[in-house]
Task: structure prediction
Amino acid sequence: MHLRKRVLVTGGAGFLGSFLCERLLQEHCDVICVDNFYTGTKRNILHLLDNPYFELVRHDITFPLYVEVDEIYNLACPASPVHYQNDPVQTTKVNVHGSINMLGLAKRLKAKILQASTSEVYGDPTVHPQTEDYWGNVNSIGIRSCYDEGKRCAETLFFDYYRQHQVNIRVVRIFNTYGPRMHPNDGRVVSNFIAQALTARDITVFGQGCQTRSFCYVDDLIEGLIRMMNGPDEFTGPVNMGNPNEFTILELAQKIIALTGSPSKIVFKPLPQDDPIQRQPNISLARQRLGWEPQTQLEEGLRRTIAYFKTIL
Ligand code: NAD
Ligand code: UDP
Result:
């Protein structure tokens, strides 16, 4: 008889995973954090290590894992383009082999399992804003494909395990999320711009900066993941989660310069291959089925993120 819900978080030492572990502990869960520290760090979870209900396991989920839990949040996968393109074969492996291992575990344990999918399954979208029924526009052989196609295959595996083995699944398509504990060198736009602004280096805008993204603050996203896991079993998703307020990358750079009072100048660099031109989630489904929507506006979220970066730079 287990009084506490036992929850496995893969990628638990990463940016999103560390906040999720923290939140689950607040909700009196027994948390197992599995991570191979590819992009995550112990620093993200140092403050949890003394908690007797928190357990850290160094493990690569492309290899089988034997633990006993009631729920699995599958977040293990590098999320920044710079990192996932650094070892693209491993990126596909973590999404495919890693998902098979975690789904196999869920099947044996009859555990609920949630997949951290991504807006990248829509590729460079021709439908705007993106709804869950849009099948996407993805290059299968480009430099982003290891991540995009890896995550698409993971979704396929989740739905095949659901249909073939009745595994209790949840699939969340996460749109650009930012906040404290992003790695300062991880290459994602918010962390890059804040680190550049605070150290008075040039702000590197790729292309003309007219491509758009919609930025969700981490606390809002974590609330969404928890609601999805606790929601009705028949609501498998896929469900979009993100903040529908859309900005150009140039607007983001200007906002960060203003909020930091930085002397940094904006410089323009070549746009990377297959960089999506626009991205904005349609979150009607999450609103209807989970009563979820983001609460934190970009300026407020950026202020909190800047405050964190000031402590580490
Ligand atoms: P992150 O890189 O900070 O975290 C990923 C974590 O997974 C790291 O701690 C890393 O060490 C770990 N990991 C990688 N490969 C592993 C392996 N083989 N075995 C065990 N652990 C492994 O990224 P994040 O932003 O926290 O993203 C978490 C998840 O959410 C990822 O699956 C990502 O694809 C997804 N996601 C994030 C965003 C976002 O904007 N942050 C958007 C869409 C999807
Ligand atoms: N970007 C930029 N400068 C940077 C880093 C990123 O202009 O230093 C742009 C990038 O080309 C993309 C957007 O910001 O258009 C978001 O990039 P990120 O890597 O954060 O995530 P993506 O949404 O592309 O996966």
Observations:
- The pocket of uridine-5'-diphosphate (ligand 2) is lined by residues 80-81, 176, 188-189, 192, 204-206, 211, 213, 249, 272, 275 (CB under 6 Å).
- The radius of gyration is 19 Å.
- The CA atoms of residues 212 and 248 lie 4 Å apart.
- The domain at 6-175+218-242+281-295 is CATH 3.40.50.720 (Rossmann fold).
